[in-house]
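The protein record quoted for completeness.
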Amino acid sequence: MCKKNLLTVLWIAASLVACSNAFQTRANSRQDDQILAKVTSPTAVQLQAVISSGLTFPVYVTHAHDGTNRLFIIEKAGRIRVAQPGASTPTLFLDINTRVLSVDNERGLLGLAFHPQYSINGRFFVYYTRQPDGGLTISEYHVTSDPNVADPNSEILMGGNFPIPHSLNNNHNGGMLEFGPDGYLYAGPGDGGSANDPPGNGQNINVLLGKILRIDIDHPNGGIPYSSPPTNPFFGATQGADEIYAYGMRNPFRFSFDRGTGQLYVGDVGQGAREEIDIVTLGGNYGWRVMEGMICNPNINLGVCTPPPGSILPIFDYTHSAGRCSITGGYVYRGPRSTVSSGVYIYADYCTGEIWQLQSGTSTLLIDTPLNITSFGEDEAGEIYVVGQSPGTISRLTTSPPPSPCVYLVSPTSKLFPAAGTEGMLTLATASDCGWLAATNVDWINFSANTGVGTNDIPFMVRDNSTGSPRIGLIHVGGQTFTVVQDSSAAPDCVYSITPSFQSFPSAGGSGTFNLSTEERCAWETTVSDQSWIKITSELAGIGNTTVAFTASANATGKPRKGTISVANQVFTVKQKR
């Protein structure tokens, strides 16, 4: 996937002509210090199977940063699948295969990024090569009322300078999309294909090929659904395309932002000599096609060159020795489960299946897999996942042996709040090394902090409700749901009734229900008298009619007992024999 095929690898010259250029000599010397060696990692790691069936040619996995702990997987043919927490089989989220040109090895549906406010606005973005000409397309889609199904008819094409023409060659399409910490959408189109970038797109600041792009999808430019940030290096009257963030790339198929520092790491796929890792900065020139990794491109002018003025060398590159052919860029690890050291960069080679960690300029082998690794991905907590091309697999990178799965529990699960704004609190219980992210589906609930590790009380603020009607908002965290019910400022004169009004149980206990009747505009909350043997199993708060479900535990006291459940000032009595 977006890699040179094996014929291209075999085409690489057996030897490179020596170069007297001082720059190339210095680069070669530096590379000699960084040649990949199969050094044993200080941490024993393994791949733990997450999804091993139901996928065809997966190319990416990510999450929606919406607190649901779901994974979203791209299939190259034009489908996105969603996996629930703990599920081993994904379901279909979006199918746009009729719009996607995927017959060639490097073409297809290649990128997916969820809006930072996806949990509220349901917006997400995809990157694909379109039918019939392979134009590099970025478009927006929306989720339906079913959170596990997107609307295939909701597409909004970016327009403007998109799609990027790409009909002459089927390779070097790039494909990565990601929102940066600045809230802008970043994309990584390749140089347009063929070999050695014949048109010189990488160095041409007037075209979008061979670049890292940055656009603002929250502020349209007239009829164009996006604008370019004014801090982009070639914005406005400055010569060059407004969308460009950095240039001189060959095929930046996968990139990522470090959660800790915000730095942009790019795995730029090389041609016949070097694979490179770049830290990309605003306005940076990363050298292609003049440079390949830290050396002059050996296929141009016999490898003799003058580097582009101000060009930036990669932080690391490696040769095609031992069958290596194509870098798969990954992530800086920031997960809480200590799979590897915090701050190391994880990447792989597509052809060999080796997974490496880069730390302070030294690369060490973590694990040698049999996979063709098309991508890495992160979950909400920052743990790293590995995408295997065929058979299609998603695996989690873990310590060996792996830790116990993270289990999350929210208490309470719902609560009624007054119309006047107020603070709230929920408790999330989980293991001390389990990370979490909290998100809400409404804009009237706010967090002071929405990420953490281990058991925590999570405070939030509920804003004033001046709508005249009660309302419901959801908080998702650790794949669990907390329901916020807020009463109306209009203080309606609600009438409530319950049926039946009591239930008797034998000493063995059991479960029961009763019905609450009221108008759809009326909110309610359920509470239990100080009796730990009665548990509510339905929602504790809501709006309109409901059925309240509960359980009574076995009575070992030797005496009859009685408890009550209150809802909207109506009292239900639970009686139990000895």
